[in-house]
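Human: Note token order:
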Amino acid sequence: MYENGYMHGWAMNGTWGLTHFLVFAVMAALILYPIGLILRKLGYSPFWAALACLPIVNIIGLWVVAIGRRSSDAGQLKTSDSTGNA
């Protein structure tokens, strides 16, 4: 693996070839697409999925989604208030 102090392999060959960019694009799609689907179902824009790549912002985003009120929650509150049952 090490030869003359350098690590060899497709990720450490010293160039950013086509294989590197293809693997990066596939990995990004495998991560960002499902996150976008989940965000869309929760009522957020799927473009916020791009923030999942930023180290500290992704943790803050998880907390916002976990604690934030969703549009479906507001609809449930209105229906329970109109029926008189809390």
Q: What stands out?
A: The chain has three helices and two strands. Residues 18-41 form the longest helix (24 residues). The longest strand covers residues 2-3.
